[in-house]
Design brief:
mainly alpha; 6 helices; about 65% helix; about 0% strand
């Protein structure tokens, strides 16, 4: 089996295990017992054993590819930035909220919305016109 097929099979198995760990329907609105909370917490820990290293490897690979895209496009950030955003943004850990369906688990990061980018305070270099 080639290296590429092995990596794809490993990532596919990882995503399958994570999807099996996620609930099929939203949890009922009842007070969870201590054992239910402990079970969800243990599920989050077990999911992170596979998910977190996969996300870190994905981010590292995306960083390398983004750097290569930057170099081969002669410094064009419009080529490199989408790759970097997709690989570095997103969730690096699975939380109980993810497993209970109260929060979305984001593996491939999204680019920030324009309203988010405009809300950020400019750095001192941008204020001075650099």
């Amino acid at each position: 089996m080639s290296h590429g097929k092995c990596v794809r099979a490993w990532l596919g198995g990882t995503l399958l295990m994570i999807s099996l760990a996620l609930p099929a329907a939203p949890a009922r609105a009842e007070v969870p017992s201590m054992w239910a909370e402990a079970g969800i917490g243990c599920g989050a820990v077990l999911a992170n054993i596979i998910y977190s290293p996969a996300k870190v490897l994905y981010a590292a690979g995306g960083t390398i590819i983004s750097g290569l895209a930057y170099v081969f496009s002669a410094g064009d950030t419009s080529v490199a930035s989408p790759v970097l955003n997709a690989s570095l943004r997103g969730d690096y850990v699975v939380t109980p909220e993810h497993l209970q369906g109260r929060s979305d688990l984001v593996f491939i990061g999204r680019t920030p919305r324009p309203s988010q980018a405009s809300e950020q305070k400019p750095s001192s270099f941008e204020e001075e016109g650099f």
